[in-house]
Amino acid sequence: MIRAVVDRIDEGVAVLVLCSGAGKTITLPSSLLPDGAKEGDIISLSVQPDPDGTEAERAQVAATIERLKRR
């Protein structure tokens, strides 16, 4: 689990500072924050593989490549 501090939220963009990242930041749409999250809050992030999503993207890219080859 990754912990981060909500550093700021401005114009729909949230900047998070990683708690163990020596000042490294993550920028993401503020709509992805938990409801009620505000500046100064510590939040937990989870990053997981998405095999189904990966396969769908690969298939889409392969189809695009094939379509372009036929031009």
Give a description of the structure.
- The chain has 71 residues and is α+β, with helices and mostly antiparallel strands.
- It has a single domain, classed as Beta Barrel (OB fold (Dihydrolipoamide Acetyltransferase, E2P)).
- The protein is 27% helix and 34% strand.
- The protein contains one helix and four strands, in the order ββββα.
- Strands 3-2-1-4 form a four-stranded antiparallel beta sheet, with no helix packed on it.
- A hairpin with a 6-residue loop joins β2 and β3.
- The longest helix is centred in the last third of the chain and has 19 residues, at 51-69.
- It is elongated, with a radius of gyration of 18 Å.
- The protein starts with a strand and ends with a helix.
- The model has no long low-confidence stretch (mean pLDDT 95).
What descriptive keywords fit this protein?
71 residues, alpha+beta, OB fold (Dihydrolipoamide Acetyltransferase, E2P), 4-stranded antiparallel sheet, 1 helix, 4 strands, elongated
Question: From the helix content, strand content and strand pairing, which structural class follows?
Answer: alpha+beta
Q: Helix proportion of residues, in percent?
A: 25-40%
Largest sheet geometry: 4 strands, antiparallel
CATH architecture: Beta Barrel
Discrete helix count: 1
